[in-house]
Model the fold of this input.
Amino acid sequence: MFDVKAITELQQAAVERWHRGPLDNPYSDFLELVCQQHQYNYLLWHEEDMARSPEAGDAVIAQVKRRIDQLNQQRNDAIERLDDYLVQKMDAWGVRPRPKAKLNTETPGSVIDRLSILALRIYHMEEQTKRTDAPSDHRARCAEKLSILRQQHQDLAQSLTELLADIGAGRKRLKVYRQFKMYNDPSTNPCLYNGSKKPAA
Done:
């Protein structure tokens, strides 16, 4: 139905490519959506690094925080687009859940998001294992963590494969869950709709 290996290979290749050059998205159809979602995690990762720099002043941190909020919103919207696409495909293919089909605790879009983050963790942890300016015990600890991350990635990819198979066979139901982030919405964040007024305690 959907090739999980193609998804994970895309995420891994994109992380490596983007660290050498600009962000791109040479994919189409569902993989194009996967890549878009992956880009938000890539940008978030590096914004989070900047926020923790001891050289960053208050103005820079405030700017980075706003950028993180914006990217998080885009990331969540992209997860929902992945699930929307899958729901539409299931409907187009005439896939119907069985009468007693159960929901999963996570949607495929959420799992793809977690695989994206794991791809970033693996890339950066592997970087730590190759640092010539770090002591050998640091590299050894990072190598142990890298092994665990790779196992977690393998397990999660297998779980996604099984989940998609269950959905395709009607053994599990697929619903899109909306995040409804309130902090970026000027109609639901009191600090936005009340201007500079502080929210009531």
